[in-house]
Recover the amino acids of this structure.
């Protein structure tokens, strides 16, 4: 597979990671709201849960943008940033595998797939 095709596929994977931030922060928020209505929490803890929730969504956006940036450099022939993309891929892969094993919910396979693709494309690009 050509370097430019690999870089394009890495960028598309990064885009999916970035778009996941919006699914997490806005669509996933509904499930969080529903779950928290059945739990008595003090105001501080309730606010803290939402702060961490949106922080995670922001991290997903930043991770996706970093992967896209790495792909942009690789598309032009540079290897700068591919280590960062690889680490993000490894993180997503590990979170996905561990969460899938722990929760037994197919949803976590999304993280496994995105992580595996990020690792595959970033390490392939590092070798070319």
């Amino acid at each position: 597979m050509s370097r430019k095709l690999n870089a394009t596929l890495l960028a598309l994977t990064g885009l999916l990671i970035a778009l996941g931030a919006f699914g997490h922060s806005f669509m996933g928020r509904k499930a969080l709201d529903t779950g928290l209505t059945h739990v008595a929490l003090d105001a501080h803890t309730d606010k803290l849960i939402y702060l961490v929730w949106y922080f995670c969504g922001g991290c997903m956006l930043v991770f996706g943008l970093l992967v896209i940036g790495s792909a942009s450099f690789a598309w032009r022939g540079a290897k700068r940033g591919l280590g960062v993309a690889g680490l993000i891929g490894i993180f997503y892969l590990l979170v996905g595998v561990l969460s899938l094993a722990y929760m037994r919910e197919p949803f976590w396979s999304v993280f496994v797939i995105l992580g595996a693709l990020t690792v595959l494309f970033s390490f392939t690009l590092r070798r070319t």
User: Anything to note?
Assistant: The CA atoms of residues 94 and 112 lie 7 Å apart.
